[in-house]
Amino acid sequence: MADQKKEKIVLFATHGPDDPEKASLPFICGNAALAMDVSATVILQGTGVLLSKKGCYEHVFCAGFDPLKKLIDTFIEFGGTVLVCQPCIEERQITIDMLVEHAHLVKAGRLVQEVLEATNVVNY
């Protein structure tokens, strides 16, 4: 019997600290996916890239959810991947040295590749 490809979900996060609920949801779902042995990638785009700045997500809280810091730390600890739109950070004058350690810069080609490889894609 051939090996089955592991399921993969890609979650686009297009909201930053201005909308704590929408900033948290991709990581809540990403953590659920990882707990179900589904590969999970969160892609930060638009104002979502602000979450990749050092010192930002540590101060994002949404009633009813764990703090965003805990959600992201758990996501990374359990093997989730965080990709950050490079043109989006450049537009906001965010430099590489301002990014958190787990942020991986990508451009459109890599984002398309991630979507094509995914079983499902969700946008927040």
Short key terms for the protein model shown above:
globular, alpha/beta, five-stranded parallel beta sheet, 5 strands, about 120 residues, Hypothetical Protein Ychn, Chain: A
Structural commentary:
By secondary structure, the protein is of the alpha/beta class. It has one domain (8-123): Hypothetical Protein Ychn, Chain: A (3-Layer(aba) Sandwich). Helices cover 34% and strands 20% of the residues. It has four helices and five strands. The protein has helices at residues 20-35, 68-77, 86-91, 108-117; strands spanning 8-13, 39-44, 81-85, 103-106, 120-123. A five-stranded parallel beta sheet has the order 4-3-2-1-5. Helix 2 links the parallel strand 2 and strand 3 (81-85). Helix 1 packs parallel to helix 2 (68-77). The longest helix is centred in the N-terminal third of the chain and has 16 residues, at 20-35. The termini are far apart.
- Give the class from helix and strand content and strand pairing: alpha/beta
Largest sheet: 5 strands, parallel
What is the CATH class name?
Alpha Beta
Cα-to-Cα separation, first versus last residue: 37 Å
Query: Can you write the helix and strand succession as a string?
Result: EHEHEHEHE
Sequence stretches where pLDDT stays below 50 over 5 or more residues: none
Q: Architecture, CATH level 2? A: 3-Layer(aba) Sandwich
Into which percent range does the helicity of residues fall?
25-40%
**Total of DSSP H or I helical runs spanning 4+ residues:** 4
pLDDT average, as an integer?
95
The strand count comes to: 5
Biggest sheet strand line-up: 4-3-2-1-5
Radius of gyration in whole Å, from Cα? 14 Å
CATH superfamily: DsrEFH-like
The CATH topology assignment is: Hypothetical Protein Ychn, Chain: A
The domain count comes to: 1
β-strand amount: 15-25%
Global geometry: globular
